[in-house]
Amino acid sequence: MNPAPSVIIFTTLSGAGFGFLAYLALGILTVAGWPAFFLWALGYGLAVVGLLASAFHLGNPQRALLAFTQWRSSWLSREAWAAVATLILLAPMALSDWLGLGLPRWIGGIGAVLCVATLLCTSMIYTQLKSVPRWHDPMTPVTFLAFAAAGGAILAAPKLVAIALCLLLAAVLAYGWKRGDTAFARAGQTIGSATGLDRLGETKVFEPAHTAGNYLMREMIYVVGRRHVAKLRVIALGLVTALPVILLALPFPALAAPAFVLHLAGAACARWLFFAQAEHVVGLYYGARG
Amino acid sequence: MTCLPGKVDKALGLVIDLDTCVGCQACVTACKGWNDQGYGVPLSDQNAYGAKPSGTFLNRVHSYEVQAENAAPQVVNFPRSCLHCADAPCVTVCPTGASYKRSEDGIVLVNEDACIGCGLCAWACPYGAREMDADAGVMKKCTLCVDRIYNTHLPEEDREPACVRTCPTGARHFGDLSDPTSKVSQLVEARGGYALMPELGTKPVNRYLPPRKKGAVAAPVLEPLEAKGLAGWLDRILGKI
């Protein structure tokens, strides 16, 4: 699949944003006054910038509000609702932390649950697609949640918890990649079953349907960069887990900020792989797989 | 509404005969021609006369080489377009309600005025039936020529999809596949018509008729011919000189 920058920015930033907001909402990082204002603003900023980025890949963004109408069937629509509901319901908790209103923490608890719901909706947009076997797997929502948990924890959780969650994320990523690498073969679609010509014999492409590129090929038969997969995976693991863990282990609390920035860069790298490596079954018609 | 209709009154669709299709691309051209002026925004082209032309098409004809055991290789031309699935994943993923399946005839359509061009429906379709128009930023797909098949301004013989009307070999058939007595259903029954990737649960309406089994080739491939009679005598004499 085409790793469009807008979708990578969207899933990376809003994932980290909603993760961080959940920690703030639960009061795991207790802050008050202006520090509270800036931390909540950071959480809101990440989430909102991510959501706005997602609008950039739309062909007609002026009609984006229609995306709230189909929550009965569409995970994308549910995500829109969940994100907006979360940001609205977290507002009293944020104001309470900033201005010292002393609202009970369970209000934040509801917001934290909605943060998780939003993350799940985002991941289900990809998980629901049977046409992309690598995504159609329970490890997709698990990975999205693990990213949010680790990213938020670097800024908001006790150091040991953050380190543990970063290590857990590395394990989730590694296991997800291992499963993902065989997902297409396990799903079982081939050029023979895509065309139904397997009932005659062995099928291969004789001539393409057209001599120029088209939307399908640009969007779904993306091949650039697959040969650097092993290197990119090591880089991603180094940035999301190894370097942040080292920085967190040092006795300087201020290092959480660079650790978080490195983690975000690694998350973007891993998300790039998430798209670039995902193969769509339509590629079979073009001979993209044997 | 992007929830699928529980029941459709008809299941209009295409039956494509892979035995008869010669890969002439007339259906591709007819489709593009009709949909440049019919339903929704025209199918645009980019850089049509330049070095890297690209454009939106609702129907594309691939060619495959099939090698059966102990037989000569065979070329199969394979038109690919929307299958108007009963359980269409492209419809349910749509966040705006632009994508829908009609309960009266089962046609899957896009209301372009509500399409935000997110592209998720094209991702959800396993068959590559949907293409985003690069000019208009809305999703385009086969409409089964909904603006022809019910169009009483057209002569009756023209009230079928443009691709079907134009096919010079009669390889494309249009009809109600939910009615077991319809011509298309009987054709599917008689020829063993099949659905594409049914294991994905999309329940496609369109069917493909497999190429008929060809007889054995007249001469074994790549073996020298044995000359007989006068030619054989000449062959032997000339071989000895």
Automatic annotation (TrEMBL), chain A:
Pfam families xref list: DmsC (PF04976)
Residue stretches spanning the membrane: 7-31, 37-59, 80-100, 106-126, 160-177, 234-254
GO molecular function: oxidoreductase activity
InterPro entries: DmsC (IPR007059)
Keywords: Membrane, Oxidoreductase, Transmembrane, Transmembrane helix
EC number: 1.8.5.3
Superkingdom of origin: Bacteria
Protein name per its UniProtKB record: DmsC/YnfH family molybdoenzyme membrane anchor subunit
Automatic annotation (TrEMBL), chain B:
Pfam families, A to Z: Fer4_11, Fer4_2
Chain ranges of the 4Fe-4S ferredoxin-type domain: 12-31, 72-104, 106-135
InterPro entries: 4Fe4S_Fe-S-bd, 4Fe4S_Fe_S_CS, ET_IronSulfur_Cluster-Binding
Domain of life: Bacteria
Alphabetized UniProt keyword annotations: 4Fe-4S, Iron, Iron-sulfur, Metal-binding
Keyword Metal-binding found: yes
Annotated protein name in UniProt: 4Fe-4S dicluster domain-containing protein
Organism the protein comes from: Pseudogemmobacter lacusdianii
Source species taxonomy: Bacteria, Pseudomonadati, Pseudomonadota, Alphaproteobacteria, Rhodobacterales
